[in-house]
Amino acid sequence: MTQESLTQDAFTLIHRFEPGAAARPLLLLHGTGGNEHDLLPLGRIVAPGAALLSPRGAVSENGMPRFFRRLAEGVFDEADLRRRTADLAAFVGAARARYGIGAPLALGFSNGANIAAALLMLHPEVLAGAVLIRPMVPLAEPPAADLAGKPVLMLSGAMDPIVPAENASRLAQQLTAAGAAVTHRILPVGHGLSQADVSLATDWVRGLALPDAA
Ligand code: MLT
């Protein structure tokens, strides 16, 4: 287990890396106020034995780490989002070279799910696929990404006070239109992580037949 920063040009992200099977690592992306430690236990359950790469969001909102700035709850600073998404793409590239791992599957919760969705749309080559827990549409006008066949699991909450149902469906439509193989499940829960999320994510990841990592 290491905890350090990877520096590539001017770019640095604090993170933890847990070695494991290198072919299909998980990229763990925490929610607002979380950190690089939060999702490691979830990652170990969802993909036992996989290498885990877990960065801390570089933005601080009143001391709460996030992956990009927002103007209000659910209203994103898209210029910052695009910049931070490019930084995250560079971080993943540097981490792959440093740790000798393949293209990761993202496992993101809330703010982390939102930057994972932005990563899929803006830098589709970076991720092998994604589990998005309580995501929302990250970009008002997404580019025409080619996500041909990339597997994406979206887990939404029917009683989520932060993500309107229409918004989650729109994201599922955008990803599907870009060619992703989207499974969208709507659970009878709110915004918080539930046991059902853990079970569904674990079963879905176990059932993936991903090609060998490049
Ligand atoms: C966001 O800002 O990414 C969403 O509002 C979710 C969250 O509360 O982090």
Automatic annotation (TrEMBL):
Superkingdom per UniProt: Bacteria
Boundaries of every Peptidase S33 tripeptidyl aminopeptidase-like C-terminal domain copy: 146-194
Ranges of residues in domain AB hydrolase-1: 84-139
InterPro entries: AB_hydrolase_1, AB_hydrolase_fold, Pept_S33_TAP-like_C
Pfam assignment, any one: Abhydrolase_4
Protein name: Phospholipase/carboxylesterase
